[in-house]
Amino acid sequence: MKVYMLHHPHNLDKNNLPPLVMALGFFDGVHTGHQQVIRAAVEKARNQGIKSAVMTFDPHPSVVLGNTHKPIKYITPMDEKIKKIESLEVDYLFIVRFTSDFAALEPQQFVDEYIIGLHVEHVVAGFDYTYGRLGKGTMETLPFHSRDVFTSTTIDKWEYEQEKVSSTKIRHFLGEGNVEEAARLLGRPYEVKGTVIHGDKRGRKIGFPTANVEVDEDYLIPETGVYAVKLKVKNEWYEGVCNIGYRPTFKHPDEHSLSVEVHIFDFDHSIYGEEVSVKWYARLRGEQKFDGIDALVAQIDKDKQAAVTYFAAER
What we know:
Blueprint: E1 2-6, E2 20-24, H1 32-48, E3 51-58, H2 61-65, H3 78-87, E4 92-97, H4 100-103, H5 107-114, E5 120-126, E6 130-131, E7 137-138, H6 142-145, E8 151-155, E9 159-160, E10 163-164, H7 167-175, H8 179-186, E11 190-197, H9 202-205, E12 211-215, E13 225-233, E14 236-248, E15 256-264, E16 275-285, H10 293-314
Parallel strand pairs: 1-4, 2-3, 2-5, 3-4, 5-8
Antiparallel strand pairs: 6-7, 9-10, 11-12, 11-16, 12-15, 13-14, 13-16, 14-15
Helix pairs in contact: 7-8
């Protein structure tokens, strides 16, 4: 898959691009609904004997259009999104830098410069896709703005249990720790990447050593609690139990930082500094405080057995 990073105004010459069928969307999560759109574009391109493409945007439009100063967390940060889109056998990916100038484009300008101007012969997008300033362009206006240069396909609402599958819904499920429902909408377990760093070794002292994972900062982290997870290190997946919780920081005890600690079953290797992936399968319980070490150890053992039972049932 060939990847183009575009900053408005782009300088790509359509004569240097093949005819394309292009899927349009932000595609955070590349969930089952997004996959319908992208696969439709890939299939249409194959049927027409031309190349398939996806156009997405970076950063999230709310960063530019919203008035919040909080950093946006993603279901699939850009590197992960690129991999997921490539796995769907797309030929070209256009990542458009979403800026104030780009957001100010009138719908016709967007179509002229970013669809017609990129040699697109057919567009595929979801029923609720919008484009141009204030989202004034819709799939209903697209045939008018096409200037009869390209055609389009609108993908109907993709539902799961009578509800639209959306990134917003997946974020909601992750925010309440419901990783199983999130996985159903994603079509796969939710996954984050990070690095194993040194912690305070408390788990090792009580017989449950943990990998302290510093999750890459762009990822959305599920609600606090204890989960059945799998951790990938050195291309091998291991089952385990993970605690997401807040603990006092060393420098400022009144401040609390989020920790992600994974106890890996039947594993006794030093993996500090390793890049790892964590997949979330089931939330076992919420975050708790304990009266002492004995109560904590007893609960961790119960959590481990619950995760072992969960994975045994899944096999």
